Amino acid sequence: MKQQLIFTNNTAETIDTLVGRLAPSSLVVITDDNVDRLVLPQLQADSKALAGAYVIKCRPGDENKNLDALSTVWTELERAGATRSSLVLNIGGGMITDMGGFAAAAYKRGMRFINVPTTLLAAVDASVGGKTGINFNGYKNEVGAFAESEAAIISTVYFKTLSHTELLSGYAEMLKHALLQSREAFASLLDFDIDNSTASGERMLALLQTSVEIKRRIVETDLHEHGLRRALNLGHTVGHAFESYAMRRESPVPHGYAVAWGMVVELVISHLMLDFPTELLHSYADYVRTRYGAFDITCDDYPALLELMAHDKKNRTPDIINFSLLRDCGDVVIDSTVSADNIKAALDIYRDLMGI
Ligand SMILES: NC(=O)c1ccc[n+]([C@@H]2O[C@H](COP(=O)([O-])OP(=O)(O)OC[C@H]3O[C@@H](n4cnc5c(N)ncnc54)[C@H](O)[C@@H]3O)[C@@H](O)[C@H]2O)c1
Ligand SMILES: [Zn+2]
Hints:
This protein is of the alpha/beta class.
């Protein structure tokens, strides 16, 4: 992985140092309206490099991670006079790092970019590992590219203005990394009281660093997702189906919530097929039910959910649904083929565990 990961709560200075080193012909910031209001004024005041940058503001929300918005970003890059030797700074949540990264990767056949994640989800996941893209035709992340940022500047200072929902959304990806790592890592996250702790504090920065390092180690072995990287799909085959289904029902759910619920279903499948320990499944399901509530489904929703799971781009043939499953924390089995019957059985058990 060429991407440099910098953990610091001194973001402005870090931006100035990096921009100085990369010496771009011009600097363009891609952000959204919320981040422009909540984060940018202070950063612009503290950073010399940012003071003169051209700012492209997108409408916030995953529903705006689309072709129209991308086209507007490219138009604005032209207006800014950006060239291949310019530098893009994506300052925002995962929606901005995904779309801004893709915009930069394709503009003039590729320009350099840096991610400055401002949500927990973007810090722990979206801004790291080189996946960029947009939603298309009702499907999540349908069009995109592998493109690594020069660096991700990861900090907890921006989390002060995040809603509890956004914090929990990011925390789900941390739980996923911990499940992929070890029982100890998993237990330390179940112990951390995300509801009552200061998410911008030092302890959080340390947990965040551990979590990102787990992802980095996996991605380093397999940047283009031919093998081990698929471990990071834990919770996502069902999670993406829930997320797309929620979009269809016109009541979108945050990505991390969908993953938290999806991981319950996939741990149930892991239990049914690989004997994933019951007590770990129950402690995870209890944690999720208490903090995230439940994604409400009935058996009438199963056919549509199965169709969405089969469409997931990680499934190489349309009829076979592949999952990343766990025998235990830290013991992952990628490319497990799961029958429709097992998925339906797991969705039944999910509804029991969630009390719906
Ligand atoms: N590329 C990857 O590997 C990867 C991995 C995981 C998720 N993703 C993508 O990330 C996106 C979800 O990321 P997200 O949850 O960060 O979404 P987001 O970017 O839509 O941000 C969520 C909301 O928080 C606001 N916000 C951002 N920073 C803030 C701050 N500091 N204070 C207050 N509000 C702030 C945003 O304006 C937005 O309204 C999805 O599009 C998902 O597909 C990508
Ligand atoms: Zn995710």
